[in-house]
Amino acid sequence: MSDYLQRTLEEFHACTLLSVQAFDPVGRILGQFGLDGTEHAVRCPVRTQSISSVMEKLDQNKERSSYYIGSCANVQGPRDMRCGEVSFIVCKIDPRMPELGAFAFWPGRTMDGSFQETPVSVIEHLVGLLQNLARANLLGSTDEKTDVSSYGHHVRRAIAYLEQNLTINATLETASEELSLSKSYLCRIFRKETGITFSDYANALRITRSKILLAETNLHLLDIALTVGFNDQSYFNRVFKKTTGVTPLVFRREYAGAQAKNNVRIA
């Protein structure tokens, strides 16, 4: 299991005492926490469900906070007890990158043996917590973690538009249309406040996301290029090498080697 996933699962369980599991997009288990080593653990109720079909349902909902609530009857609980029907929640690891897979979390038994319910009113907050932990652990210290709170209203909206539409090749022109601003005005204030052009900022975001996909998936370089918003692999290769000093393929190999030795974070 990737180091960032291990930290995320441990931190989420420590904050919520909920059992949590991570899956790749086709339903293979990537890691888990809170299932073993405790007499109050409840076995994963998602095992009898198809994570891939749940992921498809999530893909149909483009909302960033989307999640899926399911249930499974006759789940194995502490000391092989049967817990009856157990509800579980599934959400994407990162709503912007479904290629990373999904999380599932569910309640367990409390110390007195009663069942620990998860109120519907807090599910969205739990999903947000889990995804924010994953994002923080996955990105490490990268350009995408830049604090944008000091930027003006229009620039913050432009960055939000970029983050949500990066895969469809968002441009200064499409952003200015979306924000009802003139192209020249947005270009001027964006560079003044961020210190770089809109295009360079977009490419920095794309490179950050491509590094994640290079490190955490087996996707082909062309698929990664298209996924993060580059039109072709050769241009992706040039921008990646200009930004990082190495080609995408070299980065993947070096990261894999370092991860095997030290469980390093993406930097």
UniProtKB/TrEMBL annotation:
PANTHER family in UniProt: ARAC-FAMILY TRANSCRIPTIONAL REGULATOR, HTH-TYPE TRANSCRIPTIONAL ACTIVATOR RHAS
Domain HTH araC/xylS-type, chain residue ranges per copy: 156-254
Gene3D superfamilies: Homeodomain-like (1.10.10.60)
Keyword Chloroplast: no
Official protein name in the record: Transcriptional regulator, AraC family
A Pfam family annotated for this UniProt entry: HTH_18
Keywords: DNA-binding, Transcription, Transcription regulation
Gene Ontology terms, MF aspect: DNA-binding transcription factor activity; sequence-specific DNA binding
